[in-house]
Write a structure and sequence with these properties.
Strand content: under 5%
Shape: elongated
Number of helices: 3
Structural class: mainly alpha
Low-confidence stretches: 1-10
Radius of gyration: 25 Å
Number of domains: 2
Helix content: over 70%
Order of helices and strands: HHH
Distance between the termini: 47 Å
Largest sheet: none
């Protein structure tokens, strides 16, 4: 009567798994960005110093930077692919459950309207003051 409820459960499970993957991916990307920033700081600190040890360190840091940038660019491609997959899943869910999608959208709209009305009411009453 209400459509395939198993499809909704599978989609919810996929959504939760996708969210976990997205969080881990974002954490990895943040860590790589920090590593690149630290390596760039180290290269700037080395400046024009010379000597075999410093030249070797500069070469290693430069190689690490190249590797990190390559990983970051491949990570951007993976993120793009993940976003496309997620959008396809959302599209399939909406097509399989149109009324449920409409209800969810309406619910989100009502919540946003309530939040905006509440904020507006607080700003008219005097910011931060509450009446008991």
């Amino acid at each position: 009567m209400y459509g395939n409820t198993n499809a909704g459960l599978a989609t919810d499970t996929n959504t939760m798994a996708s969210a976990g993957i997205a969080a881990r991916h974002q954490e990895t990307m943040d860590q790589l960005n920090r590593t690149v920033a630290q390596a760039e700081d180290l290269l700037r600190a080395l400046g024009n110093e010379s000597g075999e040890a410093i030249d070797a360190m500069r070469a290693r840091v430069s190689a690490t930077l190249r590797d990190a940038r390559t990983r970051l660019s491949s990570g951007a491609g993976q993120a793009r692919q993940f976003a496309n997959t997620t959008m396809s899943q959302a599209d399939a869910y909406v097509h399989a459950n149109p009324w449920r999608a409409v209800a969810i959208g309406a619910g989100i709209g009502v919540l946003l309207a309530m939040m905006m009305t509440s904020r507006r009411r607080h700003s008219v009453d005097g910011e931060g003051s509450t009446e008991y």
